[in-house]
Description:
Blueprint: H1 8-22, H2 25-40, E1 43-44, E2 50-52, H3 55-78, H4 80-100, H5 102-120
Antiparallel strand pairs: 1-2
Helix pairs in contact: 3-4, 4-5
Amino acid sequence: MEIKIGDSESLKAIMSEAILRSLDDATRERLIKEAIAHLIAPQKDAYGYLKRPSPLEEAYKAAVESYARRTAHEMLESDETVKAQVKAVLHEAMERAFVTHREATVQRVADALATGLWKRDE
């Protein structure tokens, strides 16, 4: 095994292995059970209120979002049918915003610009 000084993943693996080997069976079992309990338990704040989902749920959600993002990107890059559909939807949206509902769009853009300018001067 080649270990590089800056290779923190290798060091983590070595440290984990060393710690696990140094534990007796009962302690190792308790450690593993507590680690699993931590992974599946929702995280709570100091008052016992739900702070966020469990680390396992967060990891799953991040993996699903990453997969969906990659898949959508691949579809937009390679599938001509999807490209055409997206182009048509965007064209229709722009048509509605700047032709069909022109006055409302102009008013919203003007309001947003005025708000941005007003907040910038504060």
